Amino acid sequence: MRGARTAQGVCLGIAVCLLVGCAQLGWRFGERPLRLTDVRGEGDAPRRASLQLVLEGLDADAVDDARRARGSYDRAIQVDPTNPYAYLALARHEVDGTQPDRALPFLDRVEALLSAHGDLSPGVEVHLIGLRGQAYYASGRIDQGVTLLEEARVRAPVVWSDGHLSAEELR
Question: Could you tell me the pTM of the whole model?
Answer without folding.
Answer: 0.82
